[in-house]
């Protein structure tokens, strides 16, 4: 799944599974710096969505109920449903009367500033930019003039770029970028091995238990700080045929946009693709 999304949208992608006990909330209301495709696998989960912030910086943020007010969308996901959340969409979710299991397919948007930074770094990689100037107390007027020349040379290289070829290069680069938790997820879980009977633990309101599903087999891990209202599972790939079919429908029918959307592929009597408003 991660490869499918990374190849299609040329951006970092990863897949995480959330296993939530019946009747329990997930995380507090928050928004994420990634586009989210929520694939409900088992049980049901009620989602609340709020309007996008006026300025979307691609960051993380948490909210209180007072800050958000009433949700603009409230929807119950059942097995087979897929919900799309554009990045920075405030949301919260809670399991119903059964244990809920869903996949979150995450794509980290590459902003114009990200693409331009990568293009700049490529343009500035020539040997003419490798000299070491003295810009401190030993700086003279010649250094300032040379700096201006380098800016002009870099601007000329940027202006001469073939935009189509450069976008192809950036797309290829995006398809091989690691996900946001690359190299840290299992390292963090491994830290629980340090817990002994003499280790003092602190319970927090935002801690969660963790379950690793690989492949779709639960191994329960309890971290030092936990609260019994949600569990998180890390899944990098899934071979589940039904999930692949549902997500394939999303990739080709619900292209990331500015509005949340839901896909319900279970029966012909339900809409196959409908934006939520």
Structure explained in plain terms:
With 277 residues, the protein is an alpha+beta fold. It is 27% helix and 23% strand. It is built from seven helices and 14 strands. The protein has helices spanning 2-9, 65-68, 112-123, 141-159, 163-175, 185-190, 241-253; strands spanning 13-20, 30-31, 35-42, 45-49, 61-62, 73-77, 82-85, 91-95, 100-107, 209-213, 218-221, 231-234, 261-263, 274-275. It has a nine-stranded mixed sheet. A hairpin with a 4-residue loop joins strand 10 (209-213) and strand 11. It is elongated, with a radius of gyration of 23 Å. Residues 206-258 and 264-277 have low confidence and may be disordered.
Order of helical and strand elements: HEEEEEHEEEEHHHHEEEHEE
Integer average pLDDT: 74
Low-pLDDT sequence parts: 206-258, 264-277
How does the helix and strand content classify structurally? alpha+beta
Topology of helices and strands:
Layout: H1 2-9, E1 13-20, E2 30-31, E3 35-42, E4 45-49, E5 61-62, H2 65-68, E6 73-77, E7 82-85, E8 91-95, E9 100-107, H3 112-123, H4 141-159, H5 163-175, H6 185-190, E10 209-213, E11 218-221, E12 231-234, H7 241-253, E13 261-263, E14 274-275
What features would you highlight for this structure?
single chain, 277 residues, alpha+beta, 9-stranded mixed β-sheet, 3-stranded antiparallel β-sheet, 7 helices, elongated, disordered C terminus
């Amino acid at each position: 799944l991660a490869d499918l999304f990374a190849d299609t949208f040329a951006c970092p992608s990863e897949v995480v599974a959330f296993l939530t006990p019946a009747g329990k909330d997930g995380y507090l209301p928050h928004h994420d710096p990634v586009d989210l495709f929520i694939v409900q696998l088992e049980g049901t989960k009620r989602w609340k969505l709020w309007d996008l912030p006026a300025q979307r910086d691609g960051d993380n943020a948490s909210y209180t109920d007072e800050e958000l007010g009433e949700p603009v969308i409230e929807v119950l996901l059942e097995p087979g449903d897929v919900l799309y959340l554009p990045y920075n969409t405030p949301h919260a979710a809670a399991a119903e009367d059964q244990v809920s299991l869903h996949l979150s397919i995450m794509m980290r948007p590459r902003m114009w500033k990200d693409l331009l930074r990568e293009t700049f770094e490529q343009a500035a990689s020539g040997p003419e930019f490798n000299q070491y100037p003295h810009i401190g107390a030993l700086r003279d007027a010649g250094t300032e003039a040379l700096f201006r020349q380098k800016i002009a040379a870099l601007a000329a290289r940027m202006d001469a770029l073939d935009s189509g070829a450069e976008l192809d290069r950036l797309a290829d680069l995006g398809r091989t970028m690691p996900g946001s938790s690359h190299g840290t997820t299992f390292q963090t879980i491994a830290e629980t091995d340090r817990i002994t009977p003499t280790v003092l633990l602190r319970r927090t309101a935002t801690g969660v238990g963790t379950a690793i599903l690989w492949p779709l087999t639960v191994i329960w891990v309890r971290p030092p700080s936990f609260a019994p209202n949600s569990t998180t599972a890390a899944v990098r790939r899934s071979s589940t045929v039904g999930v692949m079919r549902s997500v394939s429908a999303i990739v080709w029918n619900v292209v990331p946009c500015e509005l949340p959307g839901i896909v319900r592929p279970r029966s012909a009597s339900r809409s196959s693709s409908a934006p939520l408003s």
